[in-house]
Design brief:
- By secondary structure, the protein is mainly alpha-helical.
- It has one domain: MetI-like fold (Orthogonal Bundle).
- It is built from 10 helices and no strands.
- The radius of gyration is 21 Å and the shape is elongated.
Length: about 230
């Protein structure tokens, strides 16, 4: 309501009315060309999230298993990744990989890893030692105790990191696509900027919010709630 009240006396190229933005959003979804860009961005975010999660879990396991890796990962790698400027990764990605899907995915991975890694490290660190000792008393098989005890107990923390990283990945994806891609929603935003098309800019941004909300609500949140309940039962 407030948006409509403000926009009615402002030119459309500055702030279009909500109905116009919703129509633009609908056109984005039904238009085959723009829908292809949506699929590309979703694929990049999903791929980057999977790789970042696998890398983060692997580093967290190393950090927990071997003391020297604890120092290297938590006091060196994590500090660098946490403080390295996002724009720096974007520029390096373009220099190293030119304009390509690899550039966008690389930038996303490097930026979201620390958010996921912190949660993974804390997840494995919070494992109850008594439960761990009980598992070891039943079997000496490290792989079995890891998949039956360690991983399930750490999963709530890992999934929390995944949910945080998923939201950040969308923000980074747009910036990365502006710099290093000729497709995707970031590229559509760039075209809208070149044409001073505020309606399309708002429609794309609203679409990203919807994509994030749908996946988080229908997939990530239910999985996180399920494993949180299982953890309480333990």
């Amino acid at each position: 309501m407030f948006w409509w009240f403000v926009a009615r006396d402002i030119p459309d190229f500055i702030l279009p009315e909500p109905t116009e933005v919703l129509i633009g959003l609908f056109n984005l979804v039904i238009n085959p060309d723009s829908f292809q860009h949506i699929v590309v961005s979703v694929s990049r975010v999903t791929g980057a999230l999977i790789v970042a999660t696998v890398v983060s879990v692997s580093l967290a396991i190393l950090s927990r298993t071997i003391y020297i890796f604890t120092i290297i990962i938590e006091h060196n790698i994590l500090i660098v990744l946490n403080s390295f400027p996002s724009i720096g990764w974007a520029i390096l990605g373009v220099i190293w990989f030119s304009i390509s899907d690899t550039t966008v995915i690389f930038v996303e991975i490097m930026i979201i890893i620390p958010f996921c890694l912190i949660n993974c490290i804390q997840g494995f660190r919070q494992i109850d030692k008594e439960i761990k000792e009980m598992g070891v008393s039943f079997t000496r098989n490290r792989f079995l105790t890891f998949f039956k005890i360690d991983l399930p107990l750490a999963l709530p923390f890992i999934l929390a990191g995944v949910r945080i990283s998923y939201g950040i990945a969308w923000k980074i994806a747009i910036v990365a696509e502006l710099f290093g891609a000729s497709s995707g929603l970031g590229w559509l935003l760039q075209q809208a900027q070149n044409n001073a098309d505020s309606e399309k800019v708002l429609a794309v941004c609203l679409l990203i919010v919807l994509l994030f909300s749908i996946i988080d609500f229908l997939l990530l949140k239910p999985i996180a709630n399920r494993y949180s309940i299982n953890l309480k039962e333990i």
